[in-house]
Amino acid sequence: MDVQLSFFPELEGTRLATRHAGNPEHNRVQGADAIVHDWYRFILAYPPHLVRTYLERFAVMPDHTVLDPFSGTGTTIVECKKRSISGIGSDANPIAVLASRTKSDWIANPDSLRLRASRIAERAGETDQSILRTLTPDAEALVSRGAISPLPLHKTLNLLDAIREEPNTPPHLLLALAKALVSSISNLWFAPGVTVGPAKADAPVIESWLNNVNTIAADLELMQPNTVTTTVHHADARTLCDVLTPGSIDAVITSPPYPNESDYSRATRLESVLLGYLNNRLDAQTLKQTLLCSSSRNVYQGDTDDAWVAGNDRVQRIASEIEQKRQDLGKTDGFSRLYARAVKLYFGGMRRHLRSLKPALKDGASLAYVVGDQASFLQVHIHTGEILAEIAESEGYTIAGVDLFRTRQATKTGKQMREEVVLLRWTP
User: Fold this and answer.
1) Residues with Cβ < 8 Å from 86, sequence gap 6 or more?
2) Nearest to residue 261, comparing CAs of 348, 352, 335?
3) Gene3D superfamilies in the record, alphabetically (predicted)?
4) pLDDT tens, 211-226?
5) Closest to 249 measured CA to CA, from 418, 369, 89, 402
6) pLDDT in tens, 140-192
7) What does the pLDDT read at residue 259?
8) What are the CB-based long-range contacts (under 8 Å, 24+) for 332-338?
């Protein structure tokens, strides 16, 4: 494998290029980019300016179609729509699908949204607060203890009922509530994992939601209506051939999960439960089984993705090193025992994804995958970008290069970890 390593061009000479310090600022939404993108966004989502860089480098034109197979909250497809480029997104997480579809829907009338929100807020504010409402036991079991205090939960449930009573409820109203939940109503902290902070006795539920609706309405007034087609599939990225039209994709810009022991479904658990996407443990398990494995919490007995990298010596060596260190340290908990297999499942899942994607790609399609190196809890370094490039090459892709996007500081060790953009080309 011959990989050309390059730096993110516009960042040469900055702290990024020195690789001596972390640089989280490169992952933040900048200035006017907040329009639409900030309606609801994962804390670990990549920034719009990164998408622009590769749209320009790949010479993507308005008559092209760009795919994001791990679309999350829609950064790629929204940025494409802003440039009158057709976008297709796909994600297995239903709350992410809601976000992507809503953020690429600019047809809603801003004045109508404000009027409906005012009417809903009035109804919700009239509800009784003498007996506090709670989640069902099954739903409550899915949410971290203390994630939301009793009174804010009661107010949120009342507001949600009032929203759903509105005829033909625009999804923008639900997305505004999802953002309010994680940004101001709940007790959740994101740093960058999900933790529970100090309990709030109360929270401005209706006010926070109204502020978000008003932001959405104001942004819609700024966006020029266009006829660009944007589609978001609720699908597993490892079986994209089931939903994509053969030979339809000119470029791919995406960021799959990293093999970082993060259960990505936890980052959206509270809003997924309150909005009714997850009602019990079976729902949560079903969701996890459609996600690319990035955590030992997502390993299930019937998983077979690891078989896809059984012949990859590098993945097998890493897994063996992790397992050997586990045994040397005498760790016997389930988390430790499953981590080596989780790594194999991750890279096997990525190989399945890359193979499933091939029929949809046009000859000469360009692809950009944003991935990050990891050092597991046993300090076994995983060079994610290099391994992904190797796997892609084994599937017939050409490696066009690897760009350094940024470095970030590992929480436990303080070491600088690379986040890279693996560049591929498809020529069958």
Assistant:
1) 64, 65, 66, 80, 228, 229, 230
2) 335
3) Vaccinia Virus protein VP39
4) 999 999 999 999 977 8
5) 89
6) 999 999 999 999 999 999 999 999 999 999 999 999 999 999 999 999 987 66
7) 87
8) 334/296, 335/296, 335/297, 336/377, 336/378, 338/296, 338/299
Q: How far apart are CA 51 and CA 80, in angstroms?
A: 8
Which segment, 8-17, 20-29, 35-44, is predicted with the most confidence on average?
A: 35-44
User: Helix (H, G, I), strand (E, B), or coil: what is residue 141?
Assistant: coil
Measured distance CA(93)–CA(42) in Å, rounded: 12
Distance (Å, rounded) from C-alpha 164 to C-alpha 159?
9
Q: How many CA atoms lie within 13 A of 399 on its CB side?
A: 22
Q: C-alpha dihedral over 212, 98, 269, 422, to 10 degrees?
A: -110
Structure tokens at 261: 């022991």
Cα–Cα distance for residue pair 284/141, rounded to 1 Å:
11
Cα separation, 342 vs 299, in Å, equals 6
Report the C-alpha gap between 277 and 299 in whole angstroms. 21
List, in sequence order, every residue forming a beta bridge with 394; answer none if it has no partner.
none
Determine the Cα–Cα distance for residues 213 and 364; give it in Å rounded to an integer: 42
307 vs 15, 59, 325, 348, CA distance in Å?
A: 40, 37, 23, 7
pTM above 0.85, yes or no: yes
Q: pLDDT for 256-270, tens place per residue?
A: 998 877 788 888 999
Residue (of 205, 182, 179, 210) closest to 103 by Cα position? 179
Assess contact for 187 and 147: CB atoms under 8 A.
yes
Angstrom CA distances, 99 to 79, 242, 277, 304, stand at 14, 22, 13, 30
How far apart are the C-alpha atoms of 47 and 72, rounded to whole Å?
A: 12
Q: Where are the beta strands (DSSP E) in 238-292?
A: 249-254
* Domains of the chain, each with CATH number or no CATH: 5-106+225-260+348-426 (3.40.50.150), 110-222 (no CATH)
Q: CB of 353 within 8 A of CB of 240?
A: yes
Number of Cβ within 10 Å of residue 208's Cβ equals 21
Cβ(418)–Cβ(373) under 8 Å?
Answer: yes
- The mean of the pLDDT values for the chain is 89
